[in-house]
Amino acid sequence: MNAPQHRTVVSADGMRIYAVAAGDARRPALVCAHGFASTSFAFSKQFADRALLEKVFLVAYDARGTGRSDKPEAAAAYDGARLAEDFKAVCEAFGVVRPVVLGWSIGATVIVAVAQHLPSGYLRGMIYTGGGVLTRSIHAAYISEWIVATLPALLDSDATAAWRANVAFVDGLFARPDEVPHEVKLRWLGDIALAPPCTRVYIEASSRGLDDAKWEEMVANMRFMVIQGRLDRLVDSSKMEAVLKERFGKRLEWVTIEDAGHTPCWEKPEEHNAAVIRYIESLDT
User: Looking at domain 5-282, what is its CATH homologous superfamily?
Assistant: First the structure.
C-alpha cells in the first residue's frame, strides 16, 4: 500500500492548508473534517486501517487556524466562503471529484459552507460522526449542558482559564478518559496550544454565521449517515437520535456505537470504519 501523501495546499486567498491522503486515488474519495480545537490527527486510526484504505481514497486536512495550516488572526478569514475554498483546494490538490465528507463534531459544518458556496452536486454523500453538527440551529436541540458550560472558558483569552478548560475538554472527548494513553492526551493538548486563542473564537463564530438554505436543499435529496457514541458528553445522544430521525426519516442511517464517547472514530475505529464502508458502498446501489 502506498505511503501517505503529505501536502501543503494553497487556498484561494493564499492561506496554506496542510493535507494528507492515503489509499488508491481510483477509489471513492472520503474527505475528513476534524472538530473544534483539533487537527487531522483525530483521523489517525482511519489512516491506519488497511480495510478502510482498500475501499476508499482517504483525505484529511488541518482546517485553517489549526495544526500545520496557516492561522490568520482576523475574523473575516474564517467565513464560510473561505472554508469552502479550503475544502475545494484540498480536493483539487489530490484530484478528488464528488467526495463523501466525514465530518466530526463542529467540523461537519464545513458541509454547510460547501453547499452554500460550491456548485450543486459537489458532494456525493455525507457522514456525521461524534456529535456531528449538521447545522447550528439543529445542534441546539441536543447540545449537552456540559459543553455549554465549558465552551466560554475554551474561548477565554485568560491563559489559566483556557488551560483548565482545555484539559477538561480533552478528557471530555472520550467515554473512558482514564484509559486513554497519556501521550495521546498530550498530542491533543499540543494541537490546541498551536493555535492563537483568537482563532478558536473565530472558528466557533463562523459556524454560526453560515446560511444553511442550500444545505437544506442538498440534504432533501441525499441519504446520509450519522455515527454516534452512546456516551458522548458533548451532546445528548438519545435526544439527538430522536430529533434527527423525526426530521430526516428514511434519508438518515443512524449508527450507535456503544461504549464510545465524542470520538467514535478514535475509540472504536473498527466498528466506526465498517459503518463508513457500508455507507459508501450503499451509494452504488
Answer: Alpha/Beta hydrolase fold, catalytic domain (3.40.50.1820)
